[in-house]
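ESCALATION

Customer reports they have been waiting on this structure for their group meeting. Please prioritize. Original submission:
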Amino acid sequence: DIVVMTPDIERFAPLIEAVFGDEEAEPRIPFRIADRSMGKDNPVAEFLLRVLELAGSRLTVTEVLDILSLAPVRKKFEIGDDELPEFEMWVREAGIRWAEDESDRGRHGQPNDDQNTWRFGFDRLLLGAAMRGHGMTQFGGVLPYDEIEGGSAAVLGRIVDACEILFEQLRLLRRPRSPQAWSETLIDLLDRMLAVDDQKLWQLQA
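Update from on-call: job pushed to the front of the queue and completed.
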C-alpha cells in the first residue's frame, strides 16, 4: 500500500479522481481518498448542511437554486440538467429576489411586503402559464409572466413543487425541538426532498 499525504486534499481530489477513476483503464490502480469533508464526498450530506444554513438565510435566488441543482434533488423532482437554467431565467425576469413571502421579509426586519419575494414571483409565473396578460392586464392584482408556453408549464410545475416543499421544511427547521424530534424531522426532510439510486444508499445512511 502507498500513502500520499497533502495538506489540502480538496484541491487535489478532483485530479486524483480524473487520473485513477477511469473504470476502463488497464491496468487499473485501486485508490481511496481519505479525510475529505462529508459535504464534498456525499451530495446527501451536502444537501443537509446547505438546508440547515438556508433555514436562517434570506432565501436569495442563488441560495435556492444551489439546493435545486444538487443531483438527489433533481432526481426526486425529475428536473433535467437543461431545465434549471430556464427556470432561473423565469425567476429573475419575474422579479424574484429574496424571501419566501411577506412574513419572511418581516423576519429579517424588513417591511411586510411580498414584492420581489418567491411568493410574488410564483404567482406571476403560474398565472402566466394559465393566461396571458400581454404585459399589461392584471388578474387579482397580479401581472402574469407571459413567457411560459406548452411543455414549459410542466417544468415550471415540478420545480415550483420542489420549492414549496423546501420552504415548508425550512419553516419547520426554525422551530425548537428535542434531539429525538430533530432526528425525525431531518429524516422526513431527506425523504421528501431527495431520491438516491440503490447503489448510492450509503450516502443516505452516512
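Sent to customer with the following note: The chain has a mean pLDDT of 88.
Escalation resolved.
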